[in-house]
Amino acid sequence: MRRLLLLYTFLLCFGLNAQVTKEIFESFKLQERRDVSYYFPEEYNEENKHPLIVVLDADYLFEQVVATAKYYSKFHGMPECIVVGVHQSKEGIRYDDCAFDPETGLPEDKGSKFFEFLGMEIIPYLDLNYNTAPFKMIVGYDITANYENYWLFKDRSLFNAYINISPTLAPDMETNIPSRLQALDQQIFYQLILEGEKNKYTQRILAMDNAIKAIDKETLHYYFDTYPSADHLSVVTYGIGKAFDNIFGMFKPISPKEYKTKILTSDEPVYNYLENKYTNIESLFGIKKPVDLNDIMAIYAGSRKKEDYESLKPLSDLCKAEFPDTMLGFYFEGEYYEQLGEPKKALRTFEKAFGMDEIDFLTKEMALEKIDALKADFGY
Predict the structure, then answer these.
(1) Are 238 and 64 in contact, with CB atoms under 8 Å apart?
(2) 104 or 92: whose pLDDT is higher?
(3) Best label site of 41, 197, 290, 364, fewest CB within 10 Å?
(4) Is residue 14 predicted with pLDDT exceeding 80?
């Protein structure tokens, strides 16, 4: 692929630190140069995969998306992502980029070329030069929100997640979008955001919302958020954080609500919840996430609360792998043997825990108390 980059440097902390670069991308498909911005996370590492977020209308949305991505990834609400923003405000080119046939509602003229520019130039360039994860998300507003839906019309969607902010719908999109969401055989996250102030598209958007809600499909994760106090301009600032919260909810540490409503109410072994959570994260986002200590403690608490002591053994094995220098793994294994009625094994295991580093609420004193109690009870 022929590609020339003419940098007019707009670099912040180039290297290992977070960086934003703004470039002129010379497009073969469009036969023109386009302004494109990139954000690379502070902890970018070539060995780790990073989901890709494509932001249309970058002049309005890029900085908001980057700020949200930085905040959520810092506080474990989502994986660290690469963000690419395509600028479209200069000379009103967004309308040319998003041009569609007034009869069919499908891209035409430059709209078709812009589709190829994103799918065949921008994204392949990032996939080739950076360690991107399979998970890709696109964000658009108004006419660009309508445009992003055209990737749903492919046999397989290029994007796994869509954030659709107050779309200016092309003809028949209120029926075509639900139809494509129903037909696609892949995991799709679809977030629709609408302002309270009514316009000529409101009824069609609400009709689309009703049609999507009627789809009963495990692979479709649909969210609709409306903001009564927002108008068509201000709605942009309202919904991006909530959308990230919805789409990346699985990636977050186990919350108290999740613990009470899902772990304690499940009939399955408690450890299964943790195993399924991290398997699904890897499957959906293409990322092997290190296990959070918060999640370990939630499963430990759930195992004790439900007296599911069998879950302590696989949990202890996991802790030995994830926190090898700490007493977590051996302490949990000691409790497992203790509840199993094997005091000799429990005693030896707690002695191993005593010799390792303390972590969270587990202290050497607690291990010593277990050791002394077992010796007293069984005369060791």
Answers:
(1) no
(2) 104
(3) 290
(4) no
